[in-house]
């Protein structure tokens, strides 16, 4: 059974940085694209960034130039480095294997102005 466990959330001031990590159990990690989603209060969950099995990346317009997604297949982790954080980045961040519909429990990120 595949499980995703996120860590690294917290509270920061605008302009600060955070790195989120997602640890993946199971042996299928390297075959699938991974993604980070964000759900702000009262909003739908939205894609922030994704990385394919061949390391190609895709970013939401709001994340381009500030966030970097990466993966380590040997360690079975996927990370999201977030710089120049803004209050509108606030939300619960979820790690996901979209093709399998698997989600982590989420980690809260709060950015204050």
Category from helices, strands and their pairing = mainly beta
The overall strand count is 11
What are the low-pLDDT stretches, counting only 5+ consecutive residues below 50?
none
Q: Counting H and I runs of at least 4 residues, what is the number of helices?
A: 0
* Helix coverage percent: under 10%
Main sheet specs: 7 strands, mixed
Question: What does this protein structure show overall?
Answer:
- The chain is an all-beta fold.
- It contains no helices and eleven strands.
- Strands 2, 4, 5, 6, 9, 10 and 11 form a seven-stranded mixed sheet that branches.
- The model has no long low-confidence stretch (mean pLDDT 96).
Quick recap:
The chain contains no helices and eleven strands. It has strands spanning 4-7, 10-13, 18-24, 34-39, 46-51, 57-59, 67-72, 77-82, 91-97, 102-103, 107-112. The model has no long low-confidence stretch (mean pLDDT 96).
Name its key features.
113 residues; mainly beta; seven-stranded mixed β-sheet; four-stranded antiparallel β-sheet
Secondary structure topology:
Blueprint: E1 4-7, E2 10-13, E3 18-24, E4 34-39, E5 46-51, E6 57-59, E7 67-72, E8 77-82, E9 91-97, E10 102-103, E11 107-112
Parallel strand pairs: 2-11
Antiparallel strand pairs: 1-3, 3-8, 4-5, 4-9, 5-6, 7-8, 9-10, 9-11
């Amino acid at each position: 059974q595949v499980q995703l466990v996120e860590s690294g959330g917290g509270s920061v001031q605008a302009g600060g940085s955070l790195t989120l990590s997602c640890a993946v159990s199971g042996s299928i990690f390297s075959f699938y694209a991974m993604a980070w989603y964000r759900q702000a209060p009262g909003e739908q969950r939205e894609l922030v960034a994704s990385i394919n099995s061949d390391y190609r990346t895709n970013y939401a317009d709001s994340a381009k130039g500030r966030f970097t997604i990466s993966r380590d297949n040997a360690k079975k982790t996927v990370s999201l480095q977030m710089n120049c954080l803004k209050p509108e980045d606030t939300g619960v961040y979820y790690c996901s294997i979209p093709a399998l519909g698997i989600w982590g429990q989420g980690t809260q990120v709060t950015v204050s102005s």
